[in-house]
């Protein structure tokens, strides 16, 4: 928190003309102070209810503040230029005077399959509470899903670490400013990632308890993610299947060779599987490739490729300053990518150690992280926070494990401190690019 605040002041002093307007800068400070104070309160006691109350309070206060700023300065509850959120709102408004029995028929004729999820919750809420009140009630429903997801993440983390560290993972996740942004603006990510966390929690519950109902719950949660983003459902199922194979003695014995073989097979079959998934969203692989080529040329060729890969591994990069078009919203939640970037060293260290020591128990989250990163590199969306959001809970989990593993060994060179210095330099260069 202190490091982020110092960088905040640095960019305010040295590049004030591209710094957010005072009301958005104030929102960042508000979330920073609330996040710090509520984190301290939650960590100061061993009582779990204090953690959940702190997360709920942070999300509620911050979301209300953001909504008030939105209506005061942008004259819209949903904030600056709410493209996706406006689309969802128009769907809810359309169904105000309609019979809900026709809901799924209308969805099937007018929406992509993986856009069913959030509009369903929104239409249901606005139908019960009315359109205007329903939009406000959705903030509370968002917070409940964040809180529920934090509890699942805590329980998942308890499989691998002590309760205090697991609680820290839940706090870091529950007090992410990006979750506040998606709640206040009206996007699907909080609902979406809840089901992702739930799928992995129940899968690991099945692995440790060996009761088939937990595997059924894991599969149901995984399939529900298809109503939000189809490729993620495939990635979760693939993570379960491949990790199950690696739990066998043969796969553990030949782990490195099999990983290399899977990478080769993945490269060869990449176009086929990607085309199949894209066709389900009425997209074309060649058209997508052309779009990526044009983005590559616009972004600077080789430098863009390198940046894209680095951002997939440790990013996205936080934006303290931005262009006129992005300054009004992209800087609001920059603490979230900053935190992910700061902790990525430990997450990568945990992945390295897990693979080296053949700890196959970590395979499901590692495979999911790897598949999502590959997708982001291909689509050139590694700098987009919304698409990295899917695997950030597991980066936090892996980072806590990585910290514990890292500090069990005496290092002649403080690699984590060196990484931190390089990270700060990268952030400064990225913002001044």
Q: What is this structure's SSE topology?
A:
Elements: H1 2-14, H2 22-43, H3 48-73, H4 83-94, H5 103-110, H6 117-129, H7 131-158, H8 163-174, H9 177-185, H10 189-209, H11 212-224, H12 230-246, H13 249-253, H14 255-279, H15 285-299, H16 302-314, H17 335-356, H18 363-379, H19 385-388, H20 392-406, H21 415-431
Concise structural overview:
The chain is mainly alpha-helical and 433 residues long.
Q: How many runs of DSSP E, i.e. beta strands? A: 0
Radius of gyration from CA coordinates: 22 Å
Number of discrete helical segments = 21
Give the end-to-end Cα distance, rounded to a whole number of Å. 24 Å
Relative strand content: under 5%
Largest sheet: none
Q: Mean pLDDT across all residues, rounded?
A: 89
Shape: globular
What structural class is derived from the secondary structure elements? mainly alpha
Verbal overview:
The longest helix has 28 residues, at 131-158. The protein is an all-alpha fold. The protein is 76% helix and 0% strand. Helix 7 packs antiparallel against helix 8 (163-174) and helix 7 (131-158) packs parallel to helix 10 (189-209). The model has no long low-confidence stretch (mean pLDDT 89). The protein is built from 21 helices and no strands. The protein has helices at 2-14, 22-43, 48-73, 83-94, 103-110, 117-129, 131-158, 163-174, 177-185, 189-209, 212-224, 230-246, 249-253, 255-279, 285-299, 302-314, 335-356, 363-379, 385-388, 392-406, 415-431.
């Amino acid at each position: 928190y202190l490091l982020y605040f110092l960088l905040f002041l640095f960019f305010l002093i040295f590049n004030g003309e591209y710094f957010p307007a005072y009301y958005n800068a104030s929102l960042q400070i508000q979330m920073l102070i609330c996040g710090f104070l509520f984190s301290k309160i939650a960590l100061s006691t061993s009582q779990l209810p204090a953690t959940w109350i702190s997360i709920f309070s942070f999300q509620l206060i911050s979301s209300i503040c953001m909504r008030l700023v939105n209506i005061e300065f942008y004259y819209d509850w949903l904030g600056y230029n709410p493209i996706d959120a406006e689309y969802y709102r128009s769907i809810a408004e359309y169904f105000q005077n309609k019979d809900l029995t026709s809901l799924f028929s209308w969805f099937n004729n007018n929406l992509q399959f993986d856009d069913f999820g959030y509009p369903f919750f929104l239409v249901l809420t606005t139908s019960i509470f009315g359109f205007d009140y329903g939009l406000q009630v959705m903030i509370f429903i968002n917070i409940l899903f964040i809180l529920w997801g934090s509890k699942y993440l805590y329980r998942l983390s308890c499989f691998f670490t002590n309760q205090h560290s697991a609680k820290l993972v839940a706090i870091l996740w529950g007090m992410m400013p990006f979750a506040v942004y998606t709640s206040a603006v009206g996007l699907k990510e909080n609902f979406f990632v809840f089901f992702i966390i739930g799928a992995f929690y129940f899968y690991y519950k099945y692995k440790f308890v060996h009761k088939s109902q937990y595997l059924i719950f894991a599969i149901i949660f995984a399939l529900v993610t298809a109503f939000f983003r189809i490729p993620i459902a495939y990635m979760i199922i693939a993570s379960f299947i491949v990790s199950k194979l690696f739990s066998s003695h043969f796969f553990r014995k030949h782990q490195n060779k099999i990983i290399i073989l899977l990478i080769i097979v993945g490269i060869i079959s990449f176009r086929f599987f990607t085309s199949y998934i894209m066709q389900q969203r009425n997209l074309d692989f060649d058209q997508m490739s052309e779009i990526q080529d044009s983005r590559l040329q616009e972004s600077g060729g080789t430098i863009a490729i390198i940046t894209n890969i680095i951002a997939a591994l440790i990013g996205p990069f936080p934006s303290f300053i931005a262009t006129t078009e992005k300054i009004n919203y992209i800087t609001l939640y920059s603490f979230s990518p900053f935190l992910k970037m700061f902790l990525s060293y430990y997450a990568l260290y945990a992945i390295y150690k897990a693979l080296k020591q053949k700890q196959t128990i970590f395979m499901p989250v590692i495979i999911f992280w790897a598949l999502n990163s590959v997708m982001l590199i291909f689509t050139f969306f590694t700098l987009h926070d919304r698409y990295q959001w899917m695997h950030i809970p597991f980066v936090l989990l892996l980072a806590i494990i990585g910290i514990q593993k890292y500090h069990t060994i005496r290092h002649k060179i403080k690699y984590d401190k060196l990484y931190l210095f390089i990270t700060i330099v990268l952030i400064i260069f990225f913002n001044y690019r």
